[in-house]
């Protein structure tokens, strides 16, 4: 069923009786060519690109809850490509290009809004860093603009420009950055994968990984045994737990990252704004709520909730940067389980177990990476070769020490990324 303006008008005039379910609630078969564990954005995108780009449709996505119930529905929806390190930069540039045509690609409105992101700087050193990052972005073919203090004031006059500790010196603007609707991304990829024959199996928890002679043969689930020669693990903060079923210990720690939404307000924030000194970021949703977040909770956890001290820390950063936010009422908050690697960059690779593939370690970058992650992981699963834009995301870099991509220059400490 295709979506169009004419279809919306027709259904509106006929009582909306012609709409069909967006995807089948498939029952698992006994055998597949590829099993994807994890029905979030990355897993659904992988299934879609496997079918579309490589013609592999005998695929099942196994999700222990309902599709999109994990981090794809628990994030602040930012889309950007202002990365600097080789390996990361070309990957996120590719992802942003895919975002720009995603609604047309999927025939589903993912509400991509390229409203621009302003990353503020608050010292001479930060301004120098912004120049280096902006030049790196331009050199790879993306755009970047260095803003003066007056430029920033004209664009976002409601900020606190004269804070005693963190005065605003200027900012770095990427106009193509912005936001998208997280639920719509999951639904769009799910619908498009289902149309190409992929089975989307909900309420199907994987409880074990079967192996024989060092090769995977299938999985044990709450809905029975399912066999496949290739198994893809795409479960974000649960990566370590699922990998342990195959006897693997990953260089991953799971941490909680909180996000917050205020009551609906009239349009007041036209951009995504990032505080250079407080790890605070904010935008306004299509419903009018201010969506914002900050640092990790700095302790390992599998609980999808955060602690009060970090809530206070984020609110302090909000008030420091944007005093007007103090009048808004916070309606809700949530925590996403972040799969953190030691160098702050992801993993898309084969494992030492034949037939077992891994996609994890997205740290803060998971949502913006969804299209390119699915595209690159599907390429790996289909060809056993890394896609050019994801070729640096090797698992063995943590064992060898070569090829580490420390985007934030904070060293090999999970809690600082």
Architecture overview:
By secondary structure, the protein is of the alpha/beta class. Helices cover about 30% and strands about 25% of the residues. The protein has an eight-stranded mixed beta sheet. Strands 8-2-1-12-19-18 form a six-stranded mixed beta sheet. A three-stranded antiparallel beta sheet has the order 9-10-11, with no helix packed on it. The protein is globular and about 65 Å long.
Main attributes of the structure:
alpha/beta, single chain, globular, six-stranded mixed sheet, 417 residues, eight-stranded mixed sheet
Tell the overall outline.
Answer: globular
- Order of neighbouring strands in the sheet with most strands: 5-6-4-14-15-16-13-17
Kindly state the percentage of residues in helix: 25-40%
Rg calc: 21 Å
Q: If helices are DSSP runs of H or I spanning 4 or more residues, what is the number of helices?
A: 11
The unreliable regions are none
Give a short account of the largest sheet.
Answer: 8 strands, mixed
Could you say which structural class the secondary elements and strand pairing correspond to? Answer: alpha/beta
Element string (H = helix, E = strand): HEHEEHHEHEHEEHEEEEEHEEEEHEEEHH
Q: Count of DSSP E strands?
A: 19
Overall pLDDT score: 94
* Fraction in beta strands: 15-25%
N- and C-termini, Cα separation: 43 Å
Quick structural gist:
This protein is of the alpha/beta class and 417 residues long. Helices cover 28% and strands 25% of the residues. The two termini are 43 Å apart.
């Amino acid at each position: 069923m295709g979506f169009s303006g004419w279809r919306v008008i027709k259904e509106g005039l006929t009582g909306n009786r012609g709409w069909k379910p967006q995807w089948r609630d498939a029952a698992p078969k006994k055998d597949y060519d590829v099993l994807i564990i994890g029905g979030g954005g990355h897993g659904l995108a992988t299934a879609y690109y496997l079918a579309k780009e490589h013609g592999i449709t005998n695929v099942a996505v196994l999700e222990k809850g309902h599709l999109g119930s994990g981090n794809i529905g628990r994030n602040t929806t930012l889309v950007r490509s202002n990365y600097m390190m080789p390996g990361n930069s070309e990957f996120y540039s590719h992802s942003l290009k895919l975002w720009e045509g995603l609604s047309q690609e999927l025939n589903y409105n993912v509400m991509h809004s390229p409203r621009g992101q302003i990353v503020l700087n608050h010292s001479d050193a930060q301004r120098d860093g912004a120049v280096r990052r902006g030049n790196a972005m331009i050199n790879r073919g993306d755009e970047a603009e260095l803003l003066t203090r007056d430029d920033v004031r004209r664009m976002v006059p409601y900020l606190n420009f004269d804070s005693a500790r963190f005065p605003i010196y200027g900012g770095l603007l990427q106009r193509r950055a912005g936001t998208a609707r997280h639920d719509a991304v999951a639904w769009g990829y799910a619908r498009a994968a289902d149309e190409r024959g992929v089975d989307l199996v909900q309420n199907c928890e994987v409880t074990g990984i079967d192996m024989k002679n060092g090769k995977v043969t299938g999985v044990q689930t709450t809905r029975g045994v399912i066999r496949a020669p290739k198994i893809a693990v795409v479960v974000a903060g649960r990566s370590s737990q699922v990998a342990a079923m195959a006897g693997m210990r990953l260089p991953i720690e799971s941490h909680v990252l909180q996000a917050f939404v205020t009551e609906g307000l009239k349009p007041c924030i036209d951009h995504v704004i990032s505080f250079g000194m407080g790890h605070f970021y904010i935008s306004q949703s299509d419903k009018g709520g201010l969506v914002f977040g900050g640092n990790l909770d700095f302790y390992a956890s599998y609980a999808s909730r955060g602690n009060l001290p970090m809530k206070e820390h984020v609110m302090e950063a909000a008030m420091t940067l944007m005093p007007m936010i103090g009048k808004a009422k916070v309606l809700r908050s949530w925590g996403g389980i972040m799969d953190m690697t030691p160098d702050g960059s992801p993993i898309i690779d084969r494992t030492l177990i034949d037939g077992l593939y891994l996609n994890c370690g997205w740290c803060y970058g998971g949502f913006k990476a969804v299209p390119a992650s699915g595209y690159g992981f599907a390429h790996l699963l289909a060809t056993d070769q890394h896609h050019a834009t994801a070729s640096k995301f090797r698992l063995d870099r943590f064992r060898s020490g070569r090829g580490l991509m420390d985007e934030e220059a904070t060293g090999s400490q999970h809690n600082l990324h």
